[in-house]
Amino acid sequence: MESHLARRLGKSRRFKVSMLDSPKIAAPKVEDHSNGSDSIESHSRNGEGDVRAASDLVTVIEPRPGWKVLDLGELWRYRELFFFLTWRDVKVRYKQTVLGAAWAIIQPVMMMVVFSVFLGRMAKVSSGDFPYPVFVYAGLLPWTFFATAITNAGNSVVGAQSIITKVYFPRLAIPFSSVGACMVDFVLAFGVLIVLMFYYGIPLGWTLLITPLPMLLAVLAASGFGTALAALNVAYRDFRYVIPFLVQLWMFATPSVYMKTIDDRSGADLRNASTDATPVTRAAAEDARVVDAPSLPQESTTSAKRQGEGAVPNWIQNVLVINPMTGVIAFFRACTLGSTLPWTQLGYSAAVIIAVFGIGVFYFRRVEDSFADII
User: Fold this and answer.
1) pLDDT attached to residue 256
2) What is the rounded CA–CA span in Å between residue 26 and residue 21?
3) pLDDT at residue 177, as a whole number
4) d(CA 124, CA 132)
5) How many CB atoms lie within 10 A of CB 48?
6) Whose CA is closest to 84, among 220, 200, 221, 180?
7) Which are the contacts of 170, defined by CB distance < 8 A and separation ≥ 6?
8) CA dihedral for 32, 35, 41, 42, sign (positive or negative)
C-alpha cells in the first residue's frame, strides 16, 4: 500500500514539473510518504509564482509632459466612441419626456414670443426691414445652440466620472460629443425658421448655402469655451453655478441676438444710401441741411439731443465687437434673411474664436491627466 502511494506521488510530481517546463524547479525527495501532499502543495505554489512572474509583462503608460496639441489622429481612431457618446447624450436628454425632441423647438420659439412682446412691441427695438419675430428667431437660433453647447460641455467631464476612472480614451471626446449633440437640436429648430420665412413672405436666397460657415465658427467657439469650462469645473466645482449665470449675461452682451446693430445699419442702409446718391444730390442735401438748421423747432433739437445722450458710447460698441458671437449671429441672420453679409465683422469673430479654441483645447490637454485623481 505504501509503495503504491509512493509511485503515485512520484508520478504526480513528475507530471507537474513537466507542465511547468522550468529547469530551475526540481522535485524534492520524499522520504516520509506521509508528508507527500505537503511537499506537492509547496512545490505547486512555488512553480505557479515563477510562471506568473515570467509571463506577466507590465506596460507602463506615462503622459507626455508639458503642453499638448490636438491629436486629430487619435480622435479619428476613436470616432465610433464619439458618435456613441453623442447619440447617448441625445437619448438621455429626452428620455422619459412627454414631448421628447419637441423641446428643441419649444425653447427658441417661446424665447421668440417673449422677445417679440417685450422688445419688439413695447420697447420698439429696431429690426430693420424684417418683421421682429423672424428677425429675433434668426438670432436666437445660433445663440440657443451656443448657450446649450457650452453649458452641457462644461458639465460633461464631471458627469462622466464613471468611465474616466476606468478606461483610457481621448478625454476631448466627452465635451466634443456634448457639442455635437446640440447640433441635433439646431437642425430641428432650423425648420421653424424656414416656416417663419414662408409665413412672412421672405424668399429663400442663395445665401442660405453659406449658413454652414457661421455655424462652423459657432461649433468651434462652443468647443473652445466648453472644453476650458469642463477642465475648470473638474478642479473648481464653483463653475457649475457660474456657467448658467455667465450664459445669461453673455446673451445680453450680444446685441445682435435681439436688435439690429450699428454695423448692420451702416453696412446695409447707409452704404446703399451713399451709393445711390450722386455727388450733386449729396451737395444739395448738405446745403439744404445747412439752410434749414436754424429753423428747426426747439422740441426736435431737444429730442435729438436726448437720442444722442441715450446712444451707446463708442468704447462700449468696440468692446461688444470683441464678443465673438456678435459677428457670428449677425452673419447667420444675414445669410438666412438675405441681407448684406457683414464679412468684416465675421473676420474679427473668426480670429477671436480660433484663438479661444486653441487656448481651451491646450489647457484641457494640459490638465486632463489629473482628472481621474481629483474628479
Assistant:
1) 84
2) 11
3) 94
4) 10
5) 12
6) 180
7) 71, 74, 75, 78
8) negative
pLDDT number for residue 166:
85
What pLDDT does residue 98 have?
76
Distance from chain centroid for Cα 241 = 18
Q: Exposed e or buried b for every residue in 237-263, given b needs 16+ CB within 10 A?
A: eebeeebeebbeebbeebbbbbbbbbb
Looking at residue 133, its pLDDT comes to 94
What is the reported pTM? 0.71
Grid cell at residue 257: 441676438
Per-10-residue mean pLDDT of the chain, 375 residues long, equals: 47 40 45 48 52 60 63 88 90 80 88 93 87 94 95 91 86 93 93 94 92 96 95 90 91 86 45 41 43 42 42 65 89 93 92 94 90 82
Location of C-alpha cell 522520504? 31
For the chain, what are the domain ranges?
A: 17-58, 72-269+314-374
CA-CA distance, 179 to 182, in Å (whole number)?
5
Q: In terms of Cα–Cα distance, which of 337, 329, 320, 335 is closest to 135?
A: 337
pLDDT of residue 143: 95
How far apart CA 341 and CA 332 sit, in angstroms, is 9
